[in-house]
């Protein structure tokens, strides 16, 4: 690394990113709208740059985390640093950028109430989680978080996760039945256009909830996706505007179905889709009521509302669209993500007669 580090914005937090000895590193600290937090991380970046030039870089990043937390001065050798407790680091991470998985892990750590000072104790904690019959996929998610905040303790631990079945997308017949069912429903017809939009664009639910009239171009038939209305500290009713999950900007073309639907809608405010009371859509409430009851009434196997995204991807693939184009439409940089989590069969393969 030859140039100084520059503090940049990452959602509501301050972020440093750099590359050293062919490895990528990052540090998140404080709030972007707090000049003091930005200044402190900027100074930390100068310390990191100096350490890299002097071949004194702390690969665990504990030295820099400790300095940011005010535990030790930056001049103290990293070998003498007492690393901050896992619980303290996790609380700081949640304060900077709330995440439901982080919050659940915090509750487990508080219930565990035992120190985690070395790799043996780290393994005991993971074993304690597994003994509570937590799903292996969830445990692996927790481990990934712990490996970020204290890599020195958790880096050698691995969780075996059985390969999950491919997602079961909705067929075209099921999609048409669902949309017709919502259109004719006296209680939930208001959500017909919202669900039609999800099925025909592959947008994440929070992206569709936050889509504004300024984000669509009816002349060019384009939808510009770069923000979401995400849950605020887990609340589905109280939301904040953030960048997309991958922080990527993408353009999704409209098919004729979406174009006709948007052209026919009356503009009543900034957001395109609102609840019947004119508020931001609460997808949890709709999922537990309108979506669930509609599928039950139609005799369609229940799948969550987010499965509209996998259905869109699967039908795109069935139509012959290249995988990299589908990944771009969904906002993924890796095609592997598409294959592992979104593509499922929408029609039975026809086998040859031998």
The total count of strands amounts to 8
Report the CATH C-level class of the largest domain: Mainly Alpha
Biggest sheet strand line-up? 1-2-3
What structural category do the secondary elements indicate? alpha+beta
CATH superfamily of the largest domain: Intergrase catalytic core
- β-strand amount: 5-15%
Runs with pLDDT <50, length 5+?
Answer: 73-81
Q: What does the radius of gyration come to?
A: 24 Å
Sketch the topology as an H/E string, one letter per element: EEEHHHHHHHHHHEEEEEHHHHH
Largest β-sheet summary: 3 strands, antiparallel
Q: Rough shape? A: globular
- Count the DSSP helices: 15
Enter the CATH topology name of the largest domain. Answer: hpI Integrase, Chain A
Q: Percent of residues in helical segments?
A: 40-55%
Brief rundown of the structure:
The chain has 15 helices and 8 strands. With 354 residues, the protein is α+β, with helices and mostly antiparallel strands.
SSE topology sketch:
Blueprint: E1 8-10, E2 13-20, E3 23-31, H1 35-53, H2 62-69, H3 86-96, H4 100-112, H5 119-131, H6 136-149, H7 151-154, H8 172-184, H9 192-201, H10 205-210, E4 216-217, E5 222-225, E6 227-232, E7 235-243, E8 250-253, H11 256-264, H12 283-298, H13 307-318, H14 323-330, H15 335-341
Antiparallel strand pairs: 1-2, 2-3, 4-5, 5-8, 6-7
Helix pairs in contact: 3-4, 8-9, 8-12, 9-11, 9-13, 13-14
């Amino acid at each position: 690394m030859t140039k100084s580090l520059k503090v940049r914005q990452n959602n509501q937090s301050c972020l440093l990113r750099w590359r050293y000895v062919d490895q990528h590193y990052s540090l998140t600290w404080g709030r972007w709208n707090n000049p003091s937090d930005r200044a402190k991380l900027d100074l930390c970046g100068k310390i990191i740059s100096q350490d890299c030039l002097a071949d004194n870089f702390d690969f665990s990043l504990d030295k820099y985390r400790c300095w940011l937390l005010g535990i030790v001065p930056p001049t103290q050798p990293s070998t003498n640093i007492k690393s901050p407790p896992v619980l303290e680091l996790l609380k700081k991470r949640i304060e900077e950028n709330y995440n439901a998985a982080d919050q659940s892990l915090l509750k487990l750590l508080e219930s565990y109430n035992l120190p985690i000072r070395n790799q043996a104790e780290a393994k005991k904690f993971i074993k304690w989680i597994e003994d509570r019959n937590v799903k292996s996929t969830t445990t692996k998610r927790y481990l990934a978080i712990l490996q970020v905040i204290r890599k020195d303790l958790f880096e050698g631990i691995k969780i075996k996760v059985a390969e999950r079945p491919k997602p079961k997308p909705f067929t075209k017949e099921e999609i048409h039945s669902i949309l017709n069912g919502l259109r004719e429903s006296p209680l939930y017809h208001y959500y017909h256009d919202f669900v039609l939009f999800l099925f025909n664009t592959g947008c994440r639910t929070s992206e569709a909830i936050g889509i504004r009239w300024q984000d669509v171009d009816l002349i060019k038939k384009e939808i510009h996706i770069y923000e979401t209305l995400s849950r605020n500290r887990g609340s589905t009713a109280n939301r904040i505007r953030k960048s997309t999950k991958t922080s990527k900007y993408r353009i999704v073309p409209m098919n004729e179905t979406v174009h006709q639907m948007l052209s026919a809608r009356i503009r009543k405010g900034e957001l395109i889709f609102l609840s019947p009371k004119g508020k931001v859509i609460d997808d949890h409430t709709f999922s537990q009521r309108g979506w669930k009851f509609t599928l039950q009434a139609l005799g369609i196997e229940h799948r969550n509302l987010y499965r509209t995204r996998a259905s869109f991807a699967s039908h795109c693939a069935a139509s012959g669209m290249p995988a990299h184009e589908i990944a771009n439409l969904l906002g993924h940089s890796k095609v592997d993500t598409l294959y592992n989590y979104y593509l499922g069969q929408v029609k039975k393969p026809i086998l040859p007669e031998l």
